[in-house]
Amino acid sequence: MIITADSGSTSVDWRILRRGEPVRRLESPGVNPVLQGVGTMREVFEAALAGVSDPDVRVYFYGAGVVSAEVGEKVREALQTVLPGCAVTVGSDLEAAAIALLGDKDGVAAILGTGSNSGLYLGGRITRSIPAGGFILGDEGSGAWLGKMLLADYIKGLLPGELEAALQEECPGLDYPSVVGRVYGGEMPSRYLASFSLFLGRRKECPYVRELITRGFRLFLERNVLRYGRVDLPLAAVGSVACAYSDILREVAVECGVKEVMTAPGAGDGLERYYLKKM
Description:
The chain is of the alpha/beta class. Helices cover about 45% and strands about 20% of the residues. A hairpin with a 2-residue loop joins strand 7 (about 115-120) and strand 8.
């Protein structure tokens, strides 16, 4: 039996794979191994994997927050207390994106969701990754970056009139104090900023919106992807923003010399396909 997990802070997409049997798909609350201890993660894993009793289990866990070997060891320990004797491989969400869309092929893996990240994937591993920087110092082209730029223009009165009116109608009470309070003093400000990507997505054909998204993707490519010096390789991007604006991402990528772009909303389906072939 093989179990794959595509984990984020909000949810974990589990796939239980057995040769010759339908795939079992589960969703559990997300985990963040940087912020959570082994005990907390174990509780989530126990609830998700209740009933799994196969003595020969291999678990491939990929998640946001897996930023070091030490963090990965916490995840491994939690899983092995739930499934004693199981073999566990722990990797980052960026590795999941690479495997899901590229498999064993070389390419540049990317995440374009709430935040953004990228890495050069050669020989089945991430060989180089330019630091993402987070929503303040980086995350170009992400949902948080798009929301940040939209609100920055809004509070300075730089939005087109119709767009400003629509934003005020959909978000009553959106004024300077509330925006500053949520961004600088609220919980999970990057998620708050990224929530405005939905507003933009419904107005993708608006010239202002299209230019904003184009600028974000161009910055993401110039400051991250192109610096790997491998425009000959495909760009494999996972995430809600990558999918919602895939046509714009492809246009900008072609302008920058990247000839092939692949997108997916998440890594779960790709991980499932990849590891089914390995059984």
